[in-house]
């Protein structure tokens, strides 16, 4: 009995410490929020009303948080906590409106929340064109659009829109795509229909063949839409992410059913303004080559000569002539970094056209 009392006293003491620490944390968060309000006031008095969100500044802060973290919480978990604190503080300065491929609960929505935090003004739209249009017209401050998937490859439609848009890439988000079987049915054997986006159905084909061989597959506009349909249909299930399950209050029946365990989608953040260097950046280029032998080799040589890494190159028809192409190239560094600035100057002499789509911080949150 004495032993039990001693343990209860220890637990009571620890809980008292937790309560005291929580009060300190709450006080400090509100002090941080007050600082954010002061920053907003200074900017407004200086006539600055547009540049409240600073992608490079937030990337630097999150990077430092991960570097100085000593545990036991993991560095990425700590960064996610601060992401939400920063999002809430920024909302006190000026709420950010972000367009993404809707409806609410899609992976695009999850990517938007991961990058900007939950305290944004959400603006779901019906297609990728509307994401670009919303930012171009000022209806939204930023847009989040998928650019490539580790399983399915590049999203060509997004690349095509970048060709004709004046918007800049000002950030990126890497989102691990974890597909779940979501249904009001409690027994998987009762499922006769599976709804999802066509890409998600393709990414789970082996699992579906092995576990639901007799179920019919129905492709719909989005995974979130699939959950809404499955919620009200007997014998139906959807393939979607955790956010859709929580948002529409439909239980997850089976987790992580994707065929490729490291399935990841990269999203870009588009906006109207250029982003200063954060110290760990990526630059995206749109390049056309002269129609001569070895043109692409000569084009990339200035990068190789300076040891500048290239993470992606993708070609698309230029639509200006038969068999003429434009190249999308992702390279390491910021356009204002001296080695890269020199290389870009040389590339301009070798190419028919060079357009910098954006220099922006690499994804910090994993």
TrEMBL record:
InterPro entries: ACT-like_dom_sf (IPR045865), ACT_dom (IPR002912), Chor_mutase/pphenate_deHydtase (IPR008242), Chorismate_II_sf (IPR036263), CM_dom_sf (IPR036979), CM_II_prokaryot (IPR002701), G/b/e-P-prot_chorismate_mutase (IPR010957), Preph_deHydtase (IPR001086). Residues 97-272 form the Prephenate dehydratase domain. The keyword Nuclease does not apply. The record marks 265 as: Essential for prephenate dehydratase activity. Residues 18-45 form a coiled coil. GO terms for cellular component: cytoplasm. It is found in: Cytoplasm. PROSITE patterns: ACT, CHORISMATE_MUT_2, PREPHENATE_DEHYDR_1, PREPHENATE_DEHYDR_2, PREPHENATE_DEHYDR_3. Keywords: Amino-acid biosynthesis, Aromatic amino acid biosynthesis, Coiled coil, Cytoplasm, Isomerase, Lyase, Multifunctional enzyme, Phenylalanine biosynthesis. Residues 284-361 form the ACT domain. Its EC number is 4.2.1.51, 5.4.99.5. Residues 5-97 form the Chorismate mutase domain. Pathway: Metabolic intermediate biosynthesis; prephenate biosynthesis; prephenate from chorismate: step 1/1; Amino-acid biosynthesis; L-phenylalanine biosynthesis; phenylpyruvate from prephenate: step 1/1. GO terms for molecular function: chorismate mutase activity; prephenate dehydratase activity. It catalyses: chorismate = prephenate; prephenate + H(+) = 3-phenylpyruvate + CO2 + H2O. It holds the Pfam family ACT. GO terms for biological process: chorismate metabolic process; L-phenylalanine biosynthetic process. Catalyzes the Claisen rearrangement of chorismate to prephenate and the decarboxylation/dehydration of prephenate to phenylpyruvate. This is Bifunctional chorismate mutase/prephenate dehydratase. It comes from endosymbiont of Galathealinum brachiosum.
């Amino acid at each position: 009995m004495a032993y039990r009392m001693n343990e209860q006293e220890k637990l009571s003491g620890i809980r008292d410490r937790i309560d005291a620490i929580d009060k300190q944390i709450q006080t400090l968060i509100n002090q941080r929020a007050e600082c954010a309000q002061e920053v907003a006031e200074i900017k407004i008095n200086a006539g600055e009303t547009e540049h409240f969100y600073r992608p490079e500044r937030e990337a630097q802060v999150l990077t430092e948080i991960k570097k100085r973290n000593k545990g036991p919480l993991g560095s990425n978990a700590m960064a996610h906590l601060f992401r939400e604190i920063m999002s809430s503080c920024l909302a006190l300065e000026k709420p950010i409106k972000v367009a993404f491929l809707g409806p609410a609960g899609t992976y695009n929505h999850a990517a938007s929340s991961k990058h900007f935090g939950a305290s944004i003004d959400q603006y779901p739209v019906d297609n990728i064109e509307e994401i670009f249009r919303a930012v171009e017209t000022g209806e939204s401050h930023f847009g989040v659009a998928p650019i490539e998937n580790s399983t399915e490859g590049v999203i060509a439609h997004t690349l095509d829109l970048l060709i004709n848009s004046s918007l800049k890439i000002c950030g990126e988000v890497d989102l691990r795509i974890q597909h779940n079987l979501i249904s009001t049915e409690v027994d998987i054997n009762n499922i006769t229909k599976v709804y999802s986006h066509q890409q998600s159905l393709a990414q789970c084909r082996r699992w579906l063949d092995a576990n639901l061989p007799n179920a019919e597959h129905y492709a719909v506009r989005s995974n979130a839409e699939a959950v809404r349909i499955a919620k009200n249909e007997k014998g139906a299930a959807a393939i979607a992410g955790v956010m859709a399950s929580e948002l529409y209050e439909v239980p997850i029946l089976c987790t992580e059913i994707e065929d490729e365990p490291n399935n990841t989608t990269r999203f870009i953040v588009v906006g109207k303004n250029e982003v200063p260097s954060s110290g760990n950046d990526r630059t995206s280029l749109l390049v056309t080559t002269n129609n001569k032998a070895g043109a692409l080799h000569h084009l990339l040589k200035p990068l190789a000569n300076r040891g500048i890494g290239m993470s992606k190159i993708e070609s698309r028809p230029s639509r200006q002539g038969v068999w003429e192409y434009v190249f999308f190239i992702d390279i390491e560094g910021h356009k204002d970094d001296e080695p890269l600035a020199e290389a870009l100057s040389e590339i301009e002499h070798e190419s028919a056209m060079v357009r910098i789509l954006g220099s922006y911080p690499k994804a910090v949150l994993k």
